[in-house]
Write a structure and sequence with these properties.
Blueprint (H helix, E strand, L loop, with lengths): L1 H28 L1 H22 L7 E5 L6 H8 L3 E6 L2 H13 L6 E5 L12 E4 L6 H11 L5 E7 L12 H5 L3 E4 L5 E7 L1
Parallel strand pairs: 1-2, 1-4, 2-3, 4-5
Antiparallel strand pairs: 5-7, 6-7
């Protein structure tokens, strides 16, 4: 019975992710609503996440789950970071590459096809993981075991109504209590753990 419920949640989550990706992709075409969306929601979230770290511009960052509108990668690149993004959905990856090219950020952002658990984590000083990335706990544990000591992992946990669709990963259990969190957006809670 529990397995059936888990499978239903996975299907529902995938449908929601696809719907959100379509909305985000539309923001690539209709730029003004996209910029407002970034300013109202994501820039505040990203500023809070970045403030949890002590990263210096020029640092190399991996973002897992960029989606069709790689807001995290763009935000970080505009602040002087170099970002590799990994996206499992080909259409989302192509749309994000197009947006990056249009914004002239090709020298700072590289989006490649793949999943979050087949990456060489040792190349990065920080790793961002989007809310929708699954299996999140597995990927987080893999990063904690394979990344260099001192690598920062920033991941987004669901809060409020999003817990019905996404499984939260307790940062205290993951890191043995050594974590920082921020809750700028009511439905998301950002967590920082260090390898």
């Amino acid at each position: 019975m529990f397995e059936r419920i888990r499978k239903i949640k996975i299907v529902r989550t995938k449908k929601i992710c696809l719907l959100l990706q379509k909305i985000e992709a539309a923001f690539n075409i209709f730029r003004l609503p996209g910029k407002l969306y970034d300013k109202v929601f994501y820039n505040k979230l990203l500023e809070a996440e970045l403030s949890l770290t002590d990263l210096e511009p020029g640092s190399k960052i991996l973002h897992i789950g960029t989606g069709p509108r790689p807001m995290t990668a763009i935000f970080l690149a505009e602040r002087g970071f170099y970002v590799d993004g990994v996206e499992i959905e080909d259409q989302a990856r192509l749309k994000s590459q197009e947006l990056i090219k249009d914004q002239g950020l090709n020298s700072r952002i590289n989006i490649f096809s793949g999943n979050g658990y087949k990456v060489d984590y040792s190349k990065y000083e920080a790793i961002w993981i989007s809310l929708h990335v699954e299996p999140k706990r597995y990927i987080l544990n893999k990063i904690l075991n394979e990344a260099n000591i001192g690598t920062k992992i920033i991941y987004r946990n669901p809060a409020s109504w999003l817990t019905k669709f996404y499984q939260p990963v307790c940062p205290q259990k993951l890191s043995g209590g050594n974590c920082k969190t921020t809750g700028i957006i009511k439905s998301k809670k950002s967590c920082l753990v260090e390898v």
